[in-house]
Amino acid sequence: MSKQDNHGRAAAAHSKATGSSYKTSRRWAEQGFISLRRPFPEHRDESPESAAELCVEATGWREAECLKWAEQGFISHAFPIPDASSAQQRHLEAFVVHVLADALRDGQLDSAVFGVTRLVPLPSYPVLYLHAGMADVVVSEVLPRYEAGYGGIRGVPGLRPSPSPQGGLELRLVGTGARIRLVSEDESWRPELPGDVAPGEARADGEDDQEVRQLWRSAKRMDPLEEEELRFWNMEPFTHRKEAIERNWLLSRLLRRSAIVNLAGKSHGWANTYTHAYEDIVVEWCCGEDPDHVKSKLFSSGLVNPPPGLRVAPEPNLTHPTTICFGSGRAYVRRLPDCTITEGSAERIRGIIRERYSR
After folding, report:
1. Which end of the chain has less neighbouring CB within 10 Å, N or C?
2. How many other C-beta atoms can be found within 10 angstroms of the C-beta atom of residue 281?
3. Is the separation of the CB atoms in 268 and 341 below 8 Å?
4. Phi, psi of 24, rounded to the nearest 5 degrees
């Protein structure tokens, strides 16, 4: 049975039970809020306004839409942000965070830490609104490419672009149903796909150690280099499967809470973000927002609440004031001491960053 048929059957069951129109129920099925296995909401709060408020704060999305989700029981006070609806979708979203954390470190504009200003956290796929000045670089960074000077591939293995009927750009993971949709805060944005240069470089160099090969141009299959990178990301052999699953849950959820993560760049406009291999993410800044305040907002948004049916055991060896854990999945959120950046210096740095995005 096709996915479209499944959507129709789930919509029919939901519509009959709730009185919602079939058209509305069908849209919710396509967005991932209901399915044949979950035709009815699992959580419904007596006061949906609280869940809606948390959703708006974490995502930057419209209050009316978040309230509608809460009234339907799609979100709740304990789970105010819709999770990705499949393991493949979480894999993609987590890898996007992993790539952008390293690629954009200390180089964001207007505190868009992952390049995202707000988002629509649909379970089937998120719609990410990109900072108008950063949009093309974000696209260039997440699409997979081989860089000889780096000695391997960068970007998300298996990610392929296609035009979106709703506007912007859709990025799909080869061989799966996982996808994200990118739009810009600039409504006139026409995505510019990368050429054979590294992001931020003005031209291609003919020397062998400067070779850049765009792997996303192979639309239907993955390059062996991509497959090798995926083995590292998946922490194969599968004795480490639990660690990969818990990391994907945490990083996917962080992407879906970008409006809170963006507090890290509030003072100067950028934050230092990076990863340790394929294991975690670090978000740090030098002054301004209290990290305990940021962590409190993340916890209130349900970041580390185990979803129904998933047993997550705490890792006692990972306990630290700067560490957020989801089982063995880790994120470090911290503020460094003694900021020495004057406002004049900050403006000069912001100018250098803007120049990178204008190339």
Report:
1. N
2. 26
3. yes
4. -65, -45
Sheet with 159-163, strands from edge to edge, namely 116-121, 126-130, 179-184, 169-173, 159-163
| DSSP output for 22-79 | HHHHHHHHHHTS--SS--S-S---S-HHHHHHHHHHHH---HHHHHHHHHHTSS-SSS
pLDDT of 210: 66
Which residues touch 271 (CB under 8 Å, ≥6 apart)?
106, 108, 111, 113, 264, 265, 283, 284, 285
Are the CB atoms for 102 and 275 separated by under 8 Å? yes
Count of residues in the chain:
359
Are residues 108 and 353 in contact, defined by beta-carbon separation less than 8 angstroms?
A: yes
Q: What pLDDT score was predicted for residue 178? A: 97
Q: What is the pLDDT of residue 40?
A: 74
Report d(CA 109, CA 42) in Å as an integer: 39
User: Helix 343-358 and helix 135-142: axis angle, to 10°?
Assistant: 70
Strands (E), 286-328: 323-326
Confirm if 61 and 120 have CB atoms less than 8 A apart: yes
Packing angle of the helix pair 63-72, 48-59 (nearest 10 deg): 140
CA angle 161, 166, 169 (to 5 degrees): 20
Amino acid (one-letter) located at 258: S
The pLDDT, as a whole number, for residue 321 is 80
Residue 237 preceded by cis peptide, ω within 30:
yes
* Cβ atoms < 10 Å from Cβ of 33: 23
> Tell me, what's the pLDDT at 78?
94
Q: How far is CA 192 from CA 143, 199, 215, 303, in A?
A: 12, 12, 16, 33
User: Given its phi and psi angles, is residue 245 left (phi above 0), alpha (psi -120 to 50 degrees) or beta?
Assistant: alpha
Residue 199's CB: how many other CB atoms inside 10 A?
A: 22
